[in-house]
Queue: 4 jobs
Job 1
Amino acid sequence: MSEDEMNVGLSMFIAHRSMEQRIYAALAEAGYDDITVAQGRVASRIAPPGSRLTELAEQAQVTKQTAGFLVDQLTRAGYVRRVPDPDDARARLVRLTDRGLELAAYANTVAAAIENEWTDHLGKARMRQLRDTMARLRQLTDPYI
């Protein structure tokens, strides 16, 4: 890497941050103005059948107490609910509510529009190459797959 080149991790972070900021601005404009980035980072890790709080904390890289606080806020806002875990009567799962599913679907629509802009800028071949490269890198960097 030459002196004038930015490290690739910082480059990826800048692109991620840009998308994240645009998604949250669009969410607020659409009436989902009661969700924070921290709450969204926890909520985005909820698996379709539900997730345990400890899993959410680990994946969001926050303490269990912080995850619990954020889930409490999401519950009060109507985005998630806690339900009994069918595999362990002592445990609870966090699941998205209908409102949470609507928010997620809208956020995904905004993300897709941003990706379309990136495709227009990069070209289809480069965007496909970027997707393929990121998928391969995820195999090395994402312990949750």
Job 2
Amino acid sequence: MNHINTAVTLSNGVQMPWVGLGVFKVEEGAELIHAVTSAIRHGYRSIDTASIYGNEQGVGEGIRNGMQQAGIKREDLFITSKVWNDDLGYESTLKAFENSLEKLQLEYLDLYLIHWPVEDKFKEAWKALETLYKQGKVKAIGVSNFHIHHLEELMMHAEIKPMVNQVERHPRLNQQKLYDFCKTSGIQIEAWSPLMQGEILQQEDLVDIARKYKKTTAQIILRWHLQNEVIVIPKSTKETRIVENSDVFDFELTSTDMDHIDRMNQNFRVGPDPDNFDF
């Protein structure tokens, strides 16, 4: 891990960048397009969106602008989207995937995820993802917000094992048991809300660690994720912050500092519990 283009090899051999740009709650419009364009121009190669975000069209425009400005090709990028709960099912998931491709104006996705583990629906949706994968329309398939028991239930019926599990993870929610299960199972963990939506950036001990390394608190937290071999997709629309979030490859946290951040865990969520959601 010495550059923003550094990637992890997923279980099927596909390369996925360690750092990407998230666009949750970024509405369609110039700000979104500029954020995606800027990220690609500054070296980001991974962009994460979802159908429920309602911004795939703008993300697609930002991708095209970014490719042109950076002088790169589509195959140099890693684009993720997700199927929403209302579309879970075999045929409906296939249709949702095509709708996402159309909005993004892409011929394929690099990663497609089931957004939430809606009971009695996600297994049929997974069959659709397996079909898309076999057809070559997506390079890798995975899930989001799946607990261990969701993964176990899915894998009992799955032909292809999920390659990624994107979950809420930050210093106050390190999800150690889930992390260990995925590690053993060959499923790559990816963190959404890796900075806890900014709520811990002023925490005193993190600020002290950041001061020691002459880095920002956000950079310390992102580096903690990376040294734990967790993919991160921090969200920002500000170009300076987008650049700052990627500047995490020129230092390494000591084992003492890593352990200190590990011990901050409180099993505290800023998002819904995947065992208790109503959408």
Job 3
Amino acid sequence: MDLNILNPKIQEFINSNIGFSVSNLALQKNPFSGLDWIQILNQIEAKTKAKTKLPTWFATKNIIYPSKISVEQTSSEKTALYKSSIITGESLIDLTGGFGIDDYYFAQNLKSVVHCEINPALSAIVQHNYVQLNSINIDCQTGDSIEIITRLNKKWDWIYIDPSRRNDSKGKVFMLKDCLPNVPENLNIYFNYSNSILLKTAPLLDISAGLTELSHVKAIHIVALENEVKELLWELHKDYSGTISMKTVNILKTKTEQFEFVLGENEGVTNYTVPQEFLYEPNSAIMKSGGFEEVGLFYDLNKLHKHSHLYTNSSLVSFPGRIFEIEKSISYNKTDMKAFLEGKKINITTRNFPDSVENIRKKWKIKEGGNQYCFFTTDVNDNKIVLICKKI
């Protein structure tokens, strides 16, 4: 970590170039002798990325950033804040500290947090940044996490782990055993030091596959940000063998949508019907959870088709997802498409439909945008239909 990067003139240069093309800046001559030009460019690129993702870090003076990839891979502040709401007690050890966003928010609710990071340079950067952020109850430890937790030899209220995929696992099916650290292999060791583990995985992980690798799962949190699933959070509790709660969270600018159900306990019967007055599209967190029957039953909605995962009814209800008023339902045929949609400017979504959005636009000369929304889908009678809607 080169503290010369904190020179006021260099910091002023970095801040004045936020948002500019680093590729173009790289062609210029380094205006600061004695400091690597690549290092300065990296600060510009990483800080640009942090502007919306990490506003607290962005707004704090003398923050040092690691590589752009580290900033890209770290939790956003909004998802870190959600994670901190899960944790209770007084202490936590993070075995995969990284850039330390999660630990900063854990430390808001706990007396003590330990940040473990195997990369000495990254650990030094994080420790420096915590001083700037006035986060005084986080202890940064450098080295292998198993060695650190063994050496410290104490009981923690929580262990937090965010494993990363090994380089040689590219192209393979995403399995936890292919990550570092190997959580399934080390689970018994971890439970020697805490009764509660919070595990973060990428949304790429199949939930059923995760359940085959992990034991003692009490809850799974599916966290989306602006309707894009960002992470899966697995609560593991020592000796737990009961039901598993599936908690879906979609963090939006003005609200947070939440829906919860118990995995494998749905005993209701879904009703199917032709489109009625309103159309409901579940958010991405619910779609990832697989709770298609549960959400329909909870909100007393009817499904259009077993595989469409679109819902309808004749009265408006609050719902965790997008809601539309159906203005018209047409058959997907040449006559109706030419009469109602060809050449128009429309937002298109496909659900359980044989053609892609791109092909539909090309075939019917439909432009993107406007205030009208069309769902190309399949109804209860297996007919291909188009729902022309207005968003509510």
Job 4
Amino acid sequence: MAKLVSKTYGEAIFDLAVEENVLGQVQEEIQFVKDVLNENAELVSFLNHPKITKEEKVRVVENIFKGKLGDITVGFLVTVVNKERYGQLIEIFEYFEDKVRQFKNIGVVSVTSAIELTEEQKSKLTDRLLKITGFAELEFVYFVEPEIIGGMIIRIGDRIVDSSIRTKIDVMAKDMSKVQLS
């Protein structure tokens, strides 16, 4: 059910933003709303409080965001409050962001290495991946895990390229265990 809600609302604001040619603006505004929600636990508690009326919640949302955000984003937030879907806002925003990435042909890359990569290594990796993936742009998330010993593990969507030394050792050990000496 939560996925259906996030899909329905996420697509609605995405489609409206594209139709009105304000996708970049709405994307920035949604990031602003996410930041506000992350920094204000009281607001989240207020929105989730069962004894506070929808009208009061709408009034507070409008007071906070009107004038700071465009009409589309404020109207969207009011609709979410009126439909009592504020508990799914984060999932809705994540779905929206995924739609924006698809629309703009942006890939999300997770890179795990044994040590921190230098800026030069990151730049070379970006250039190489842009050439072989066909994405217009890439967003990177970097992780350092010394236990992989060396090499990298690169994940793009459901594709994984594991060139870590740890995996190579594990594969060799598995292959060696199959060898029978007579």
